[in-house]
């Protein structure tokens, strides 16, 4: 993976090879945006992300994936957004240390999804000392508005009284509470066994998944920062099923 900069009509120049998030942040924050035509991240031979523009006039983000060109919608609105898009492809220091790569999302981003990731240390919350939030914006709207979270005692009572969604799979239904305004579409989505398994795994981390048409949020907790991280391959698979790609 190479990070390249292009100025004017000149050929792009490699400024970092296999950069991690810290390296990308340092390089981007030092950029002279008036002189820089484009920031290019070549993830592999088949995938490229090119971001052009300025903080003042706005940015354009272009993906080239195996010859297919797509544009991020909405485009990045700030340097912070630019960094979030570049960071999604880059391994963290921890990932580099144990050989895991966060580029599991590379194909998704090439389809026009955008990602913001936030990791928080909750100093005053002993039950949830670390929280991880992945907030995705989809390239098109889906007909689902639902939240999947931990089953609490009050939820069990509500299910009985209101006849809320039950999938018929006891282990799942005992653990996951479903709140939705799109019951039929949500029931259809939950017929997929892989979707139920991924939701179950997230909820086991005392987390939740929220789908709100074009917005999808994965929220998870853990005793440490690394334990608060969800399985990225499963997250990517969930989004693929949701978008049917």
Relevant terms:
12 strands; 31% strand; 6-stranded antiparallel β-sheet; alpha+beta; 245 residues
Shape: elongated
What is the string of helix and strand elements? EEHEEEEHHHEEEHHEHHEEH
Structural class: alpha+beta
Give the fraction of residues assigned to helices.
25-40%
Beta strand count = 12
Radius of gyration: 20 Å
Largest sheet: number of strands, sense, barrel closure: 6 strands, antiparallel
- Mean pLDDT, to the nearest integer, reads 80
> Tally the helices: what do you get?
9
Placed side by side, the strands forming the largest sheet appear as 2-1-3-4-5-6
Given as residue ranges, the uncertain stretches (5+ residues, pLDDT < 50) are 92-101, 153-163
Q: Calculate the terminal CA-CA distance, rounded to whole Å.
A: 25 Å
User: Roughly what fraction of the amino acids lie in strands?
Assistant: 25-35%
């Amino acid at each position: 993976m190479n990070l390249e900069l292009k100025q004017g009509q000149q050929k792009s120049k490699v400024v970092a090879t296999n950069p991690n998030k810290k390296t990308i942040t340092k390089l981007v924050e030092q950029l002279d945006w008036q002189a820089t035509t484009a920031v290019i991240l070549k993830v592999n031979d088949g995938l490229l992300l090119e971001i052009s523009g300025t903080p003042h006039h706005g940015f354009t983000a272009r993906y080239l994936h195996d010859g297919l060109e797509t544009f991020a919608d909405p485009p990045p609105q700030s340097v912070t957004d630019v960094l979030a898009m570049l960071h999604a492809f880059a391994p963290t220091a921890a990932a580099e240390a144990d050989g895991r790569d966060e580029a599991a999302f590379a194909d998704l981003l090439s389809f026009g999804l955008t990602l913001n990731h936030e990791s928080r240390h909750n100093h005053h919350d002993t039950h949830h000392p670390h929280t991880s939030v992945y907030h995705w914006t989809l390239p098109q709207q889906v007909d689902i508005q639902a939240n999947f979270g931990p089953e609490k005692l009050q939820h069990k009572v509500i299910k009985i009284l209101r006849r809320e969604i039950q999938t018929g799979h006891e282990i799942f239904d005992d653990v996951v509470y479903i709140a939705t305004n799109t019951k039929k579409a949500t029931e259809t989505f939950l017929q997929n066994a892989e979707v139920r398994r991924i939701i179950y795994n997230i909820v086991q981390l005392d987390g939740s998944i929220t789908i709100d048409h074009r917005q999808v949020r994965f929220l998870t907790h853990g005793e440490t920062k690394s334990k608060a991280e969800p399985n990225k391959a499963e997250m990517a698979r969930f989004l693929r099923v949701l978008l049917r790609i």
